[in-house]
Write the structure tokens for this entry.
Amino acid sequence: MSAGVCSLVTLRCVSGLRCLKAAVSQRAVHTCPAALGITNLPAGRHTIPDSRAQVETSTAEWHYVERLFPLKSIPKPTVAPGEVTPSGWVAPSAKPGDHPYFVRRSPSHMIPVYLHHIPHISKYRTFVSHVEGDVFALLEELREYLQDRKHTRILNMRAHEPHQKIEIKGQYVAEVREFLLERGF
Amino acid sequence: MASQGTEKALALLRRLPRVSLGNLKPNPGAVKSARRGRGIYGGKTHGAGSKGSGQRQNFMRLGFETGNTPFYLRFPYQNYYKGHHMRLSYAPLCMGKLQRMIDTSRLRTDVPVDITQLSATQLFSINPMEKMGGIMLKDEGIDHFQATLNLEVQWATEAVITSVERNGGTITVAYYDPISLQAALNPMAFFKRGVAIPRRMLPPQNLIDYYSDPKNRGYLADPTEVARERFVLAQKYGYELPDIRSSPNQEMLLERKDPRQIFYGLQPGWVVNLEDKVILKPTDPELLEHYAS
């Protein structure tokens, strides 16, 4: 048993010595620099000359900067109510009280009729938002209008009073927009 | 007394807010958290089956065809991907929508309309880091485009050029390198950084022909040739070219940027100080030479 341990120790000693020998061995070491001529080159100027910091100030061109200021909010259109613009956009002419309901424009002055589409089940729903006042009156009028225009037997539509919305199953964006435009919204 | 109390209660009711999203909430106990069903309401696997993708959600990679050579590897090359690493994408803008932006006062018409003015409307999302090059004009709605504009966009077709010039406007297509484009898209954020306005780079090799062509109204084309092409296009489509020199807003219509300039009236190398409302211009001749066109 003890002989076995001894032999192990000696082996370890031998391997350690070998390592030591390798470390102390006299081998040729490269001592010359990577680039021989680098010391002959002029020293690099890493300071920025003072003349770079010299500037002249001017306010003459400030109106060009003012032109770049973005607007803080969406501007109000200057078009008269009911006037049809070249793009087809019409400024709202209806006032609250003209109808039992009132549909206000979206913040960007567009008619709030939207199409929701779920592609993978091919589901289309049309939404009218911002319906203030009697939502159900608008629902009935819209139902009549769509039935005359589209001749559909089934019109699946409902009013969400707390959400101030009307939901119609199907794609009726153009018809509903036309309906709201006719009433001046 | 009782009637007074009732009236008070009714008055209070009238003043109370209507039922709306703001004051609606479900009844106590109405909302139940989803529970994992047992037995016939789910079973041990809950629809995920046993073994495989269903159970482990380690779905096959996109395009893998379970042993077939996938479609995307079946053919040696697809020509429509040629040079895809160089191509830029552009945010589309229809002429009809441009007219609507003007009608609803979203866009100023008393100053030249460039990428900065268009992006200030916040109606576009342009990200130069995603290899977007700016805005391209689409010909939808050219029939009712009536505005007289000095337009500068990054891509335009012949139909679009016709519709702009027929109304007495001018159009230029100009290239912005990603750094200049980022500065042009949000100049306020750029000025707040307190760095000098960069020099706009020239277009890359694959775009230099497009931006030097007077037919495209390129910003590198010779102005006399552009004027000739304006006349040629008017002859081709049979409309009378309005004379810009006699127009009341001639100055605005003829305002042009230098190919190295990003903002109208502001030279590369200048620093805009928004706090003190001054512009700092370098005087060092080396810097002036560096930023010179």
In short: The first strand of chain A starts at residue 55 and ends at 58. Residues 32 and 150 of chain A are 92 Å apart (CA to CA). The first helix of chain A runs from residue 2 to 24. Chain A touches chain B through 36 residues (CB under 8 Å).
